[in-house]
Write a structure and sequence with these properties.
The chain is of the alpha+beta class and 581 residues long. The chain folds into 4 domains: 4-52; 54-151, no CATH class; 159-313, no CATH class; 350-577, MetI-like fold. It has helices at residues 4-51, 68-71, 79-82, 87-98, 105-112, 120-129, 146-152, 190-220, 224-248, 318-329, 340-343, 356-387, 392-404, 409-423, 431-455, 459-467, 472-500, 504-508, 533-541, 547-577, and strands spanning 56-65, 137-143, 159-163, 168-171, 178-182, 254-255, 262-267, 270-277, 283-290, 298-299, 303-307, 333-337. The strands form 2 sheets. Strands 3, 4, 5, 6, 7, 8, 9, 10 and 11 form a 9-stranded antiparallel β-sheet that branches. The chain has a 3-stranded antiparallel β-sheet with strand order 2-1-12. α8 (190-220) packs antiparallel against α9.
Length: 581
């Protein structure tokens, strides 16, 4: 009797310990789920933020005069003659009308770099469809260059605006070098001069730090050649630091070039680029990039425009920045939804690149994959699970099916390259071959999931069907298969979704090629060159242009949307046909 309280206390202690263990387990489970949700949110959030610039685009709209002599060389208005026209020249003429001061070859090259010459094809198609445009002026809208688009989105440069501190005077003709002087002798460019000197001092400090680091590494280096190389690097860094410090403390005029920030003076609707500033910060020299509305000697209403990112560190020049901003202020450049991303195929120019071609290729490829993998895989699963005898041969087949499910996908690509392309001579980079390769890769997944669904059907269903006189085939196809269909469909769709996201096997059969035109959504399209969404993402991610970064993230979101849609269909089918026992 005296032991009863001790036993009860021991039982309660063990029970409390078990409850604490269960609470810890629940906490760990919730923590794991929370971490997974957090990581998923970070991934999706970063993709969405990175892809936002790709969903909008700036377009330029110009009044283009369709000169009949340029657009219709033969003068007969035939389609053959219209297609020989120089439509890019028409666009260039319309753009030159906006900036008549651009007359040298270098300036015109920069001006025409604000758009891609490929846009002339759209103007050609408009004239071919409506020859009555010859001799008339039409409004033509087209995407601006990716560099100008990134600039207007604030992703290419850092810039600030400073109000004019005091009245200034301008002397010189429009097409000559302009001298800018402060009327009251005030240092109107002092803030910019301080910025330039601070950056020169910072560059000198960085160069000095590199010199010290190289010297320390040289002292610890054993190899004589490596030590001499490090010492030479330290000498070069010291020389650069001395030169930058000399420029920062110099009393000579400061020349603004590609390695310094750029300074623009805005007045009377014009833009003057400053090329040199005197040490007293009261006088400067420059040139007009955009002509003013009215030329005046004394100005009290003016402002400074500082482009802090040096020209050497950006892909868009000072002139292009000024011209792009001028077109924006004139209402000739507007921002809107980037429909090109969804209606165009791939392009070397980021502003003209889209996912339509890859999307069409993915659809055609998945049709072939579905037509081959699902019937063959389900048929093989039904035979192995319901009809095949249990012997060494079937055991060998089952083991190899399980092993194939773990084989790297690139192996199937090598198989497709060796058999379908090299042996049978099938077309390279075609959805037909890509679908066959992905079908081979998906077959093990479909077979295994279908067998698991058939095995999950209670044996009593088979026995009841056989007991009322049904044949083995009738029992399987009339009773077992309908009950296993939710699991079969779920496994098949998940296998197809996995195939949709594969890249390696398709790279081996040439679907990494550049495809400018989307394949035909028909029987002919199955043998036409095409690419798919994962390969398109791979191509864009390896491109040098910065604008492809946002388009890569947008394409990833499109692919994730397709994968989520596949899995949503699988969940719907399972709930639609699921039976509870």
């Amino acid at each position: 009797m005296n032991n009863a309280p001790n036993i009860r206390d021991a039982v309660q202690a063990r029970l409390a310990k078990r409850h604490r263990a269960e609470q810890r387990f629940q906490f760990y489970g919730l923590a794991a789920i929370s971490a997974a949700v957090l990581f998923l949110a970070v991934l999706l959030g970063s993709l969405i933020i990175q892809s936002l610039p790709a969903f909008t685009a700036h377009r330029m709209t110009l009044d283009v005069e369709i000169n009949a002599e340029i657009a219709d060389p033969r003068g007969d208005r035939s389609e053959a003659s219209l297609r020989r026209g120089a439509y890019n020249t028409l666009i260039q003429d319309a753009l030159r009308d906006q900036f008549p001061m651009a007359d040298t070859v270098a300036e015109l090259r920069e001006l025409f770099g604000l758009y891609s010459a490929v846009n002339a094809a759209d103007l050609l198609n408009q004239v071919v469809q409506n020859p009555d445009l010859l001799g008339q002026t039409t409004r033509f809208s087209f995407p601006i260059s990716d560099d100008a688009d990134l600039y207007l989105k604030g992703l290419a440069t850092e810039e600030t605006r400073l109000p004019g501190a005091a009245p200034i005077t301008l002397s010189g003709a429009l097409d000559e070098e302009i001298e800018v002087s402060a009327v009251a002798g005030e240092p109107v460019f002092s803030d910019f001069m301080a910025l330039v000197r601070d950056r020169l001092e910072a560059g000198a400090a960085q160069a000095r730090a590199r010199a010290v680091s190289a010297t320390d590494q040289a002292q610890a280096e054993i190899d004589a050649d490596a030590r001499d190389s490090l010492l030479a690097e330290a000498e070069r860094a010291d020389a650069l630091a001395d030169r930058l410090q000399s420029q920062a403390r110099s009393v000579e005029p400061v020349a603004l070039g590609p390695q310094t920030a750029s300074l623009m003076l805005r007045a009377n609707g014009g833009v003057l680029r400053i090329s040199e500033i005197r040490p007293d910060a009261r006088t400067a020299l420059g040139e007009w990039l955009v002509a003013p509305d009215a030329q005046a000697e004394t100005l009290s209403d003016w402002s400074l425009w500082v482009i802090e990112t040096p020209a050497i560190a950006r892909r868009i020049s000072d002139r292009q920045i000024v011209w792009t901003r001028a077109l924006k202020e004139r209402g000739l450049v507007t921002n809107g939804l980037n429909t090109t991303l969804f209606t165009h195929a791939d392009s070397r120019e980021p502003e003209l690149a889209g996912v339509a071609g890859a999307l069409a290729g993915s659809i055609l490829t998945m049709i072939i994959t579905m037509l081959l993998a699902v019937p063959i895989g389900v048929g093989a699963a039904i035979y192995l699970e319901e009809f095949a005898p249990k012997n060494r041969l079937t055991d060998f087949i089952e083991v190899n099916i399980n092993n194939l499910a773990a084989v790297p996908s690139i192996v199937f690509g090598l198989l497709g390259l060796a058999v379908f392309i090299n042996l049978f001579g099938m077309p390279r980079s075609a959805p037909l071959v890509g679908g066959m390769v992905l079908a081979l890769m998906t077959l093990p997944t479909v077979i295994i999931s279908a067998r698991a669904a058939l095995k999950a059907v209670p044996p009593s269903i088979r026995e009841a069907a056989l007991g009322v006189g049904a044949s083995r085939t009738q029992a399987v196809f009339h009773h077992v298969l309908p009950l296993a269909m939710p699991g079969i469909l779920t496994g098949s769709i998940i296998g197809l979704a996995q195939a949709l996201g594969e890249t390696a096997p398709l790279l081996m059969i040439g679907m990494v090629a550049f495809i400018a035109d989307p394949p035909t959504l028909g029987l002919a399209g199955f043998t036409e060159p095409a690419t798919v969404m994962p390969v398109q993402i791979y191509i864009w991610s390896s491109s040098a242009e910065r604008a492809f970064e946002a388009r890569t993230a947008a394409a990833i979101l499109a692919l994730l949307t397709l994968l989520v849609s596949f899995n949503a269909v699988a969940i719907y089918l399972r709930r639609r046909f699921e039976r509870r026992w």
